[in-house]
Amino acid sequence: MTATQTMMLRQGYATTTVDAICAAAGLTKGSFFHHFASKEAICRAAIDGWGVMGQRLYAAAWADPAADPLDQLDALFAIMKSFTTTRDEPCLCMVGMMAQELALQNPAIAAQCTGHLGEWTAMVVRLLTEARARHESIGSWNAEEIGWLLNSIWQGSMLIAKTRHTPEMLVRNIDLAQAYVQGLFMPRPVAT
Q1: Which residues is 137 bridged to in the sheet?
Q2: CA 91 – CA 4 distance, rounded (Å)
Q3: What are the angstrom distances between the C-alpha of 110 and each of 53, 101, 103?
Q4: Which of 30, 39, 69, 135 has the fewest other C-beta atoms within 10 Å?
Q5: Residue 88: what pLDDT?
Q6: Which of 70, 75, 58, 51 is nearest to 135 (CA)?
Q7: What range defines the domain where residue 152 resides?
Q8: How many structural domains are present in the chain?
Q9: Is 190 within a domain?
Q10: CATH number of the domain that residue 97 is part of
Q11: Any idea which of 33-42, 46-55, 166-175 has the lowest mean pLDDT?
């Protein structure tokens, strides 16, 4: 699975072949087809594996259910930034990459990617909703719309950082998104 994710993140779905996946994973084609019916099948498994891995990594942000939801959102942004600084390659998302490449031609993969993107957004919406229940918010805003906006910033920033070879821009965009979220609420009292 890792070989598939690595190759498809680096070169996309279209140019990744079953032969190349087998060579990278040290498998025979017979072994491959024993487990997966096609390249699409392993791609779908790789997307799901990526989604599960991402949710596990993001879960550290709300590991303490008693924590302030704004602190949990800050922790989420810190986790996102950590992805940009712990890799030798650009920060990429298998779900976002496959959605971009295949969504218009493969409705099943489009639905699968939409599901994973929706899980991330739902997690952010939950934290925003909990924060609004606990803190005074500024103005009128829709948590779901903001959740999708933040998802768009995250996915779009990865795409642009990849094409421009500027991981620093990705960190700056996360910082701007975090500042935007903080601006939705009245400032919290500073602990003395």
Answers
A1: 185
A2: 16
A3: 19, 10, 4
A4: 30
A5: 67
A6: 70
A7: 47-182
A8: 1
A9: no
A10: 1.10.357.10
A11: 166-175
Q: Is residue 6 a part of any domain in this protein?
A: no
CA atoms within 13 A on the CB side of 176: 10
Please give the pLDDT value at position 86: 63
Phi and psi at residue 185, to the nearest 5°: -125, 150
Cα separation, 54 vs 94, in Å, equals 10
Amino acid making up residue 32: F
Residues 96, 46: Cα–Cα separation, whole Å:
12
pTM: 0.90
Tokens of 79: 């986790």
182 contacts 135 by C-beta, under 8 angstroms: no
Task: Identify whether 22 is part of a domain.
Answer: no
